[in-house]
């Protein structure tokens, strides 16, 4: 089954590039950029990856991203993730990046987007991995700061397919970003938002009603609202679910309690994703394996989850058709 899950063609629709920064690369970049890390070794760093909630993780995640300074750093980060995708038969990716995490440290927007975009272009030409880059606003920062990030992105709209909303969900509901999402959508960008990860089902409804998102990231708390579940099914609104993230951040106490397959069986368009694999113990294949081990996911369910990842991606229709065709022999 592990071999089957690894070779199964898949798309990843919820992956923070900063969350794919492996400890070894973090140490290498810290040395290259003469940055002092508050840890003596990889072992000491990973011992700190023991989170009780989203905020405890975010504190370390933002600290880790501080080793990223140059265009080459962003290239190396993105390329390392692409190499994982190649070995795990991930043939289409829609990664997130958090520009404000970097511009607030004085790194120019162009440095960030150039390194990431160069790696994504190489992924297409060298490995045939297609992609669409999504820029996230940090919801713990102000609306004004989000408008500023959007303005900085304007010269690079050819490199970005959409906007997202991430960081601390509790205390930062979607309403604050309604105007900046409207502006971005008016610029032709697609939209997603983290909602119903730690926060209530109402945040999912508000992301749909106020932000007009095309997909919901996480969305596992939809289960608390049967009317919302019905709406997600009839309107075919996809959820990008992240199983290992949810157990590592204690959204579910154990994988056996995860609701992804329950929602799948109810007809919700759920997909499997890795979120921040360097921090949560696994990339896409490991997330599929965790569902098989923890929830008894069948091969048929795995294929349906992979099908959803292509169907609800933002890829062009010809590319979607080509990817779906690859599943025919599974
Ligand atoms: N940023 C990176 N990972 C995140 C998550 N799981 N939730 C919210 N913001 C994030
Ligand atoms: Zn996320």
What does this structure look like?
The protein is of the alpha/beta class and 330 residues long. The protein has 17 helices and ten strands. It is globular, with a radius of gyration of 18 Å. The relative contact order is 0.14. Bound molecules: adenine and zinc ion. Zinc ion binds next to loops. Adenine is lined by residues 16, 19, 54, 61, 166-167, 194, 197, 245, 275-276.
Summarize the structure.
With 330 residues, the chain is of the alpha/beta class.
Helicity range: 40-55%
Q: Percent of residues in beta strands?
A: 5-15%
* CATH class division: Alpha Beta
| Strand order within the widest beta sheet | 3-5-6-7-8-9-10
Number of domains as seen in the coordinates:
1
Summarize the SSE layout with pairings.
Blueprint: H1 2-7, E1 10-12, H2 23-32, H3 42-47, H4 54-64, H5 71-87, E2 90-93, E3 96-97, H6 99-103, H7 109-127, E4 130-131, E5 134-138, H8 143-153, E6 162-166, H9 178-186, E7 190-195, H10 201-209, E8 215-218, H11 226-234, E9 239-241, H12 243-248, H13 260-265, E10 270-272, H14 277-280, H15 284-295, H16 299-311, H17 317-326
Parallel strand pairs: 1-2, 2-4, 3-5, 5-6, 6-7, 7-8, 8-9, 9-10
Helix pairs in contact: 5-7
Adenine binds at residues 16, 19, 54, 61, 166-167, 194, 197, 245, 275-276.
